[in-house]
Amino acid sequence: MLKTNISQRVAVVALLIVSTFAVAGLTAVTVLSDSVAVAQGPGIDPIAGCIKTVGETWVGNTVGDKQNWNESRQNFVSLLTTDNTIKLMNQNIVHNGFPEDPAKPITDTAGIWSMLNNGNMTQYDRFHLFVNEVILKMAAAKPGFTQIQQNFLGRCITEAVNTLNPTPLY
Known about the structure:
elongated
């Protein structure tokens, strides 16, 4: 009977410790998300920053957890850079579809961020087209992000896009 009580006490203490770290983690992600929004400027890629922050905060410590995260992250970026909607945004909005100004393929998140900063982008382009694609690609990335990873990654990227200045076409 004594061992059972000790086990229950250990379980309760462990649960309290885990809960404390979870709350601290949520606070850290909120603070980091806010600081990413403030620190943006030319040449800074907050999408990669979001991926890094969520990876450091919401990935377990086992080899399997890290391998799953890295594969999902690589697949997510690949899905974004090859997405037809984003390709069309890059060709027809950023480069106006003119043959004399051909769109170069987007190969990484820095290229996506550069596209979002283009003066031809409207609020609709950024929020309805791009953010929708981010959400779809997070869900499609394999082997798969956990739900909490998807939630925080989507929130961080949306907050980063929210910090972009209006363009002449807003």
